[in-house]
Write a structure and sequence with these properties.
32% helix, 202 residues, 9-stranded mixed β-sheet, 7 helices
């Protein structure tokens, strides 16, 4: 798997989503639908805000998507639920998809952030460990996927991050939270504005 860890507020993450739309023909969905509901597609970061996705996802963003130049094999899978909870939900799947998860304050100390993640299969890992059919693996334009992923990594690390700790780069909003007295879950310790491991980005 290719994975980028970083610290981001909702506004920080929305900026990353806007960038993803700007670099390619992106098809973006909530990762999981609400129970007994169709899955929702977003055509911009603004649509994520205007929906109730953030409120319904414990105050954070959790989306999956794919660039159409990478794959046409993005799938929407319906799966049953425990009848005590609901009848069904939908999720986005596909070997050429990525997921973007905001590190939410759910179950954490107030004024704190956990790590956010941008992750997806790379070709070597997918061919060794993924359970997708060979035809699906061969359908993905892996070189294009790597090229677009590098753009996202570079945007986060070079253009958007203002500081870093060993467990990830820190976006502007997350850094402002630190300056206001908040903390980051830095694994194994919590990080504050006075923590020695906090360093500016070069």
């Amino acid at each position: 798997m290719a994975q980028l860890n970083f610290y981001a507020t909702t506004d920080d993450l929305l900026g990353i989503i806007d960038f993803m739309f700007s670099v390619g023909d992106l098809e973006l969905y909530e990762a999981y639908s609400a129970k007994d509901a169709d899955i929702r597609q977003f055509t911009s970061a603004d649509e994520v805000v205007k929906s109730n996705h953030i409120q319904g996802n414990h105050g954070g963003i959790f989306v999956r998507g794919a660039w159409r130049t990478v794959t046409g094999a993005l799938r929407i899978r319906r799966f049953p639920l425990n009848p005590d909870v609901g009848q069904f939900r939908h999720e986005v799947t596909g070997v050429g998809t990525f997921q973007l998860i905001q590190g939410r304050p759910m179950h954490l100390a107030e004024g704190s952030l956990d790590r956010s993640m941008f992750s997806h299969w790379n070709e070597a890992g997918a061919r060794r460990r993924a359970t997708f059919a060979k035809s699906e693996l061969d359908e993905v334009n892996w070189a294009e996927f790597a090229r677009l992923s590098r753009k996202v990594h570079r945007e986060v690390r070079v253009s958007l991050a203002v500081a870093r700790i060993p467990s990830g780069h820190i976006m502007q909003g997350a850094f402002e939270l630190l300056r206001a007295g908040g903390q980051l879950f830095g694994y194994p310790s919590r990080v504050s504005i006075a923590s020695p491991e906090l360093a500016p980005c070069n």
